[in-house]
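Hi F.,

I've been meaning to write this up properly since the lab meeting, where we talked about keeping a consistent format for the predictions we share between groups. The idea is simple: the sequence comes first, exactly as it goes in, then the structure tokens exactly as they come out, then a line or two of notes. No screenshots and no reformatting. I'm using this chain as the first example so we have something concrete to point to.
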Amino acid sequence: MARARKKKDTLERKLEALEAALREPESAKARAAITAALAKGESFLAARAASVVKEERLEGLTAELADALARFLEAGAKGDPGCHAKLALVEALDATDAPRRESFLAAARCVQLEASWGPPTDTAGAVRSRAVLALGRGDYLDLPLLAGDLLGDPLAVVRRAALRALASHGDRMGAGLAHLALRHGDEDPLVTSEAMGALITLAPDVGVPAVSALLRSPDATLRELAVVALGESRLPEALDTLLEAMNEVVLGSDRAIYFTALALHKSEPALRVLLTFFEASRGDATKAIEALAIRRFEPEVRERAEAAAREAGREDVFEEHFGT
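Output, unedited:
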């Protein structure tokens, strides 16, 4: 017990010394402390140093960050429990002007099983996710190969990141993977949502019809995900599909998700349609105002919504959702 207390005191002193050096992050003293923490420091020290590099946009430390990441990837759970250092290092590398692709590739393959109640837990999901997202923002030609592998990852957060990376990468060839993920389905609705968004982004001529077909799915969750994905796309053809489908909705409670999609579409035609519902039944008007409130910080939208609410006699509903 005494040894553990002594070790804790030592670590606390090291952290205090690092924090003292970082008070002026661009000073020579701070750079020396950061370099030392990255080269030899324990995981929490390296994580703190990496976070400062990222937050302060410090330059000239790419090699040190990459070497530190390699060190902790090799150290595994013993050297970096919880993967806190690895995650901070990947994020810092992604913020540099010259990120190293090989570092992200290694991180995207990192699996770290740690003891927990029951089966071991993989704590590296966030590391894999952040790494593939970093690669998605670059010009890595083999991203579809990596993303295809990560779409089979046991962790939903990694599968979502793989789809988001494909969408960010912008290569139409990745649309096939997104389409497959959509057709195959996923136990996590957020993965399905990412698949819809990626497919529409990469191949709208295929994605809009494919997602539109799900508006009539017997699965209520799938229908709602499709409505939102079409709204978020902001494509004119998606709006046409949404309006056509909304006209077939009988129950007011089922129209609420369409109002949300219209607000997310952020187009002038979508806004005009949404404003007309301010004069509908109180239930529809309330849902329409509530949906449009996501844009309440846009001055023009707020002004037009307030005028429409006043004309419809819905000032109380407007104030409730938009605030005063």
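Notes:
The first helix runs from residue 2 to 21.
Residues 190 and 322 are 28 Å apart (CA to CA).

If this format works for you, I'll send the rest the same way.

G.
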